[in-house]
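Appendix B, record 7
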Amino acid sequence: MGKVFFELAERYKTFLHLKENFNKSLVIENPAGNITAMLRQMGHPSVMTDYSLYLYIKTKIPGG
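Structure tokens (predicted):
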């Protein structure tokens, strides 16, 4: 596993050295917005997808 990690690390280093302007600002247009927020505003129930909910369920439910 260590060998695979170091090989991947070298690939990332090579990639990062070839790219320019990593600090360049990007303008990303997303006209849809946050779909979850829009559904909640329309009255649809939301589903928690947080890691904290996962941990809560895992500790409170037997076999969870």
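Remarks on this record: The two ends are 30 Å apart (CA to CA). The helical segments are 2-18, 35-41, 51-60.
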